[in-house]
Specification:
165 residues; alpha+beta; 19% strand; globular
Length: 165
């Protein structure tokens, strides 16, 4: 159980702060909800059941995990699936698992493909670009919070790692 003031990771919403715990009634009986404020979109207020089975709220990653995530960017890209639909289904599945290492490797693949295409004056497909933007915003924010830096610094560090490998 979390407390008011805790900072948590909530899947595709990224980092959120628990602002309150209140009884709410959403289409049924009243129950306790965490009132969450998204760090990524500060105007967004989220409600999450305190007693949810298989809760999607997680503690922020540790510094050791953050370092392991950054090391993923040293890896070679995964093989590129030319079938757009299959590729995006795979990416959506990875995003839903909220596994930091898997998300980092997917991001690594997308970033390396983007660089490869830019080298021949082409662009990453729009859907891949959108996934990359959404995922990096959330991943870099959590890494930055854990490592007490900025998302911009994390972005620069990832770019540096990819260029070196």
């Amino acid at each position: 159980m979390f407390s008011i003031g805790d900072t948590v990771f909530y899947g595709a919403h990224g980092i959120c702060s628990i602002e309150d715990i209140q009884e709410q009634k959403f289409g049924g009986e009243a129950q306790s909800y965490y009132i969450l404020r998204s760090h990524h979109s500060t105007s967004l207020t989220l409600y999450y059941p305190v007693n949810a089975v298989n809760s999607k709220l997680k503690k922020l990653m540790t510094k050791e995990k953050a370092q392991a995530v950054l090391q993923c960017f040293e890896n070679a890209a995964d093989s590129w699936n030319d079938r757009t639909t299959t590729r995006h289904q795979s990416y959506q599945s990875i995003i839903k698992t909220a596994g930091h290492l898997e998300i980092a490797q997917m991001t690594n693949t997308l970033l390396r493909k983007k660089l490869e295409l830019e080298a021949i004056d082409k662009k990453l497909p729009a859907q891949d670009t959108q996934i990359l933007q959404n995922v990096t915003a959330i991943l870099y924010e959590e890494l930055a919070t854990t490592l007490q830096t900025t998302a911009s610094d994390i972005s620069d560090k990832v770019d540096e790692i990819i260029q070196m490998n």
